[in-house]
Amino acid sequence: MRRRLPGAAEQGNVLLCVICTIGIVSVIGGNVLLNCTTRFNAASSQVRAWKESLYAAESGGDIAYAEVRKTISNPTQAFSGWNYTSGVYSSPQLTFGANNLRTSSKADVFYVDGNGNPWYRVRSQGTAPVRGLKRVTMDDRMSVGVRGDSLLRKIDFNYDHFAATYGPNGDNQNKAVLAVNSPQLTRRIELVASPVTPFEAAVKAKTAFSGPGSAGLIDSYNSKNGAYQFVANNPSHPHYSDSRSGGVMVNSADFNMNQGPIYGSVTTNGGNVKPSNLIKGTIDNNVPFTLPPFSLPSNLPLPQTSPTTVSSTTTITPPTPGTANNPTYYVLSALTGTLTIAKSGTAETYVAIRVRNDITGKITVNNGVHAVVYFEGDISVKARDIDNPSNLAANLQFYGITPTDGSSQAINIAPPGNFAAAFYAPGADFRVNGNPDIIGAIVCKTYYGNGNTSLHYDRALNDIGEAVDYRISSYVEDTR
Amino acid sequence: MKLSTSLGKQAGSTLSEMMIGLSLSAVIAVAAITTSVGLQKSFNAVDNYFATHMQQIRIIDYLSRDVKRGLAVTTSTDLQSVTVSVPNYLIQPGDAEAVADPSRIGTPRTPTVSYTTSGPQVNYSANASTVVYQVNGMSIVRVENGQVTTIAASTDQLVPLTTDVELANTEYTNSSVTFRPIFTSTDQRSGTTICSTAYLRNKRRG
Fold it and tell me: What is the mean pLDDT of chain B?
């Protein structure tokens, strides 16, 4: 039998010490990892939830904004499925995304402007679940009594702090302690959707712009200050500030300067417009916009029984003056003759005309008449055939009803003559040749102006017309 | 039978073995202590780095939140001070609405619309709130209408930099925050930078 040497037992003790040492070191190392990992997970989860809750709130805002836009593009479907109580539309709660984000919105009209266009206020809230332990992470790390993260990221671990402190609607009413099923983080935003009026720039083209000609120009003035005069190169003139708003907006990269100056800003969507002594305003090549198709308004009154077509010299004298929101309405199958619209008595007179085919005739709008022409075909006239002696573009507005088959309308203006009118035809190719001098604004699919064509944008147009779209004009976050 | 003399040999061996054993133990103890201290330092370094990183994120999140809801932003020439004008959304004590109805303090205002030379404008109050971010010693403070809040404080020398870019139809800020880890011998900030771009939602394109 082999005896075990005493020295062998001592070697075993050393091994035990080594193992213990390794064990202690491992425990310390594990503790480091555990601490860091736990805090990292909790902190990153809370930061993620804080950001995602804003995404959710903004998604809810976008959903409400889409419904507001439908009030113009598809009124019968606007706010479909929403609850309507006391003037406020409330959306159902929507859960979406891989992290089960929740959002809901409310929208109400808080203001109606002078054109009868409603302004909507949208309040949206977004909620994201907070995963991990119910603990604040880096809070109170800065110094004694100084809170850090919890001042910014207000997490509802057990109760909805907002409902308890400010009430469910944030108006200090109906405060209640409401338990939450699991930790969550909610952020709230308020948006204002304001109506976009048709004429907010000298030229607003959907796909292409080419102009002005070498002897032409684009500038602006304000008809509220009197008749147009060129003052864009005279800084000391009292109306100089109104003279450099002849902006051109193109929702594509297709922008061509034809040697004529533009006294205003130029924006394109992906274009390559560079600073030039011909562009007197700012340049931004990254400005997309939407130009929705135009359809006949649904709130027009019943049409007058006559005339139903204008193929010779015809004068319309409305039976009543009407109003901007309730004009005297005519439907014409054609406008190939000479049409004169006269005042009804001595009062300012409002007229709406729908032309179901091409316009090739002459239209005269007497002083004191405010005419809106909706056309379904093309326009091909000389500039002198658009006769608006008031020289106020707002008094003669043309609206092109966008063809539903995707085809383009055509608006061709030829010399001689000058005119004052505003065109809103998002589906039309607008082409003006020669030397017409135009006062007004043009919204179209493509714009082409050569030769001596000049365009003087009337800034007063920015305040008129029915809304053609909505844009978000204010954004506030409720940080409570 | 010859008796074993191993006891005498063992005594001699024990001394040398003990010396060796003590030496080994000392080496192991030094290694253990060194490792422990190293791990503790690593823990502190990681913990401090992470805490400072969280403060970086907090600075950026604060700034982005205010920029997004801001009406205008200006930065100082050294880029370390940012002033944001934000809508005065909530009714404050002393406001006309609060005087008329004290129960409305802290509640949201209904916006109004005014018409300016540049078009219609949405207002929540005649005067906007002013929020200023600035470096104050080792801290980053946020001052809203005179009320000071320390949003970050670190011995790692946090340095925020913000540039404001204003275009024709929009405006945005680029912000970055760096710090100098305290467990490095040189000013190695490059690996600590976090960046953010925030657009002013109130100055939208299109």
Answer: 83
The shortest C-alpha distance from B182 to chain A (Å) reads: 16
Q: What 3-state DSSP class applies to A406?
A: coil
State residue A301 phi and psi, 5-degree precision. -75, 180
What interhelical angle do A6-73 and B6-68 show, nearest 10? 10
**Any idea which residue has 């953010």 for tokens?**
B196
- Residue type for position A431: R
Task: Write the residue in B13, B61, B104 that is nearest to A7 by C-beta.
Answer: B13
Return the pLDDT at A455: 96
pLDDT in tens, B39-50: 788 878 877 888
Strands (E) located in A318-361: 328-332, 338-341, 349-355
Q: Say whether B150 and A32 touch across the interface (CB within 8 A).
A: no
Contact across the interface for B55 and A138, Cβ inside 8 Å:
yes
pLDDT computed for residue A252 by the predictor:
96
Kindly report the nearest CA distance between residue B50 and chain A, in angstroms: 8
Nearest residue on chain B to A36, alpha-carbon basis:
B47
Those of residues 428-457 in A touching chain B at CB distance below 8 A are none
* Closest chain B residue to A120, measured at CA: B111
**Residues of chain A scoring pLDDT < 70:** 1-12, 136-148
A149 and B58 within 8 Å at the Cβ level: the answer is yes
Residues 112-131 on A with a CB inside 8 Å of B are 113, 119, 121
pLDDT of residue B204: 66
Indicate the residue of A32, A265, A267 with minimum beta-carbon distance to B43: A32
pLDDT in tens, B162-201: 888 887 667 899 998 888 887 766 767 778 889 999 999 8
Instruction: Say if residue B137's pLDDT is above 70.
Output: yes
Alpha helices in A343-435 (DSSP H): none
**Two tokens at A364?**
């005269």
* Count of residues making up chain B: 206
CB atoms near residue A94 (< 10 Å): 16
Residues B71-90: pLDDT tens digits?
989 888 888 889 999 999 99
CB contact under 8 A, B17 and A7: yes
Task: Indicate whether B97 pLDDT > 80.
Answer: yes
pLDDT given for residue A365 in this prediction: 97
User: What are the tokens at A456?
Assistant: 């003087």
What is the per-residue DSSP string for A41-106?
HHHHHHHHHHHHHHHHHHHHHHHHHHHHHHHHH-GGGTTTT-EEETTEEEPPPEEETTTTEEEEEE
What pLDDT shows up at residue A279?
93
> In this complex, is the C-beta atom of A47 within 8 Å of any C-beta atom belonging to chain B?
yes
Inter-chain contact B204–A472, Cβ cutoff 8 Å?
yes
The encoded tokens of residue B55 equal 């403060």
Choose among A105, A118, A111: nearest CA to A190. Answer: A105
- The pairing of strands B171-178 and B194-199 is antiparallel
Q: Does an H or E element contain A162, and which?
A: helix A161-166
User: Would you state the pLDDT for residue B168?
Assistant: 63
Nearest Cβ partner for B39 among A28, A287, A471: A28
